[in-house]
Structure formats: C-alpha cells, structure tokens
Amino acid sequence: MTATTPGALRLVAVHTKFQLLETIRIPAAVIGNTVFPALALFFFVVPQADVAGNRLWATTAVASLAFFSVCSASMFTHGLGVAEDRESPFDPFVRSLPAGPVPRFVGRILVGLVMALFGMVPLLLVAAFFTEAGVPAPQLLAGVGMLLVGAVPFILLGIGLGYALTAKAAIAIVQVILFPLAFAGGLFMPPQLFPAWMDTVSLATPTRAGRDLLVDALGVEAAHGSSWLVLLGWTVAFGVLAIWAYRRDEGRRFR
C-alpha cells in the first residue's frame, strides 16, 4: 500500500487521532507547554514600555517566544510522549500491526503541528491585549506557515529522543537541550546583543534559523542568507536520528 492510497491516508488519520487523544488526556502537560511563553511575555516584555509599546520590537519579541513555544511543545510532546508510550503495555501491540511505521510517524508529526498551533493561543492573546505587536494578515499567515515548517526538525528531534531514552531520562534531556538552544538561538535575548563569537555560533543553531525565518516572514527583519540551509540541514540530521532510534528500539524489543 503506497502513502497516497486512501487506505494509507485513513491509517494516518487514525494514528493522528489516537496520538492526539493520548496527548491531551494529560491536561497539566499540555497547559504547562502552552502557558510558559505567554507568562514570559507578560512578565518580561509587557513591563518594558519601550519594547511593548514599539510595534517592531514587540512583534519580534512575540515571534521569538512563539517559536520557543513551538520548540517546547514539539520536543516535550514527543520526547516525553514517545518514551512513555514505549513503557506502555499497549505499545508493543500497536507496533506489531501490519500498517508499518510510516502512518505512526506521520501521525506524530501532525500531532506535533497541532500542539504547536494550540500553544500560540495564550501567547497571541497576551500580545494582542498588552503590546503593540501586529502585522498585516498576509504576513501573519506567512508567519504561521513558517512556524509549522520550523516545528518539523524539533518534532523529529523529540521523536528521536523518545525512542532512544526512558521517560525519566527524556524529560531531563529535553530540558537540557531545549533551553540552551533557545538562549543560543536568540529566543530569550535579541541576537543583536550577542558578542561576535556567540552570534557566529547562534547562526548555526536550528532555533536561530527558525527565529530569523519567522521574523522575515512577518516582515520585521531580513533573515540571514544561511538560515534555510541551516534549518534544512538540522531537519535532515534529526530525521536520521529519529529513524536510527526507532530501528534501534525495534531491534532491541522485537527480535
């Protein structure tokens, strides 16, 4: 059965629905991933009148925190979710079904994109009511599209970590990776404030590439020329990691 047949699409839809229900059945985890960026905006940006009251600066701050929300939701949803699934007695049954791994992988990516969009809601509400951030509708749609594209490498990274680690290890490792990447990528501090050496390192990170492409899509500032190559390179690398971790786990548990 090919990926384009109606049967394959139905399998993807079933896996997506199942994994989405599995994710939202723990409201605390979902709320935690979505509320933190909005709180960061409210407590660290809104009180700065010169930033919150400036349309370009406020829009940049909102965009950076929006991308952090996407990274966080993608990595926690899958890094911890996949690891917990592997410890469930129901997981071996699902993986033994003849559908193969592709519908499940695609379903996980789609769930990650849904959770990324869901995480935008509290952040955008705070931005709308307490800052001057704003862009025309076409740029806003382009920004949403860029957020979804930028989420893919972090979804793949989360899947790779989830298949490689236990649940207890996954939650720690995700945090150890996520927050340094967020700082280095300019999601908490404008890259313009970085020293030259840190700016060079930052340009090689997927968080900086995604952040720059997002603000470019919003029409705030131009992205660096290497941003697309960096994001694509990390997407391929994390995709390879996810496939390797899945096959490694498959070989250990289903020999």
UniProtKB/TrEMBL annotation:
<dbReference type="InterPro" id="IPR051784">
    <property type="entry name" value="Nod_factor_ABC_transporter"/>
</dbReference>
<feature type="transmembrane region" description="Helical">
    <location>
        <begin position="170"/>
        <end position="189"/>
    </location>
</feature>
<dbReference type="Pfam" id="PF01061">
    <property type="entry name" value="ABC2_membrane"/>
</dbReference>
<feature type="transmembrane region" description="Helical">
    <location>
        <begin position="228"/>
        <end position="246"/>
    </location>
</feature>
<dbReference type="InterPro" id="IPR013525">
    <property type="entry name" value="ABC2_TM"/>
</dbReference>
<feature type="transmembrane region" description="Helical">
    <location>
        <begin position="56"/>
        <end position="76"/>
    </location>
</feature>
<dbReference type="InterPro" id="IPR000412">
    <property type="entry name" value="ABC_2_transport"/>
</dbReference>
<protein>
    <submittedName>
        <fullName>ABC transporter permease</fullName>
    </submittedName>
</protein>
<feature type="transmembrane region" description="Helical">
    <location>
        <begin position="105"/>
        <end position="130"/>
    </location>
</feature>
<keyword id="KW-1133">Transmembrane helix</keyword>
<keyword id="KW-0472">Membrane</keyword>
<feature type="transmembrane region" description="Helical">
    <location>
        <begin position="26"/>
        <end position="44"/>
    </location>
</feature>
<feature type="transmembrane region" description="Helical">
    <location>
        <begin position="142"/>
        <end position="163"/>
    </location>
</feature>
<keyword id="KW-0812">Transmembrane</keyword>
<feature type="domain" description="ABC-2 type transporter transmembrane">
    <location>
        <begin position="14"/>
        <end position="215"/>
    </location>
</feature>
<keyword id="KW-0046">Antibiotic resistance</keyword>
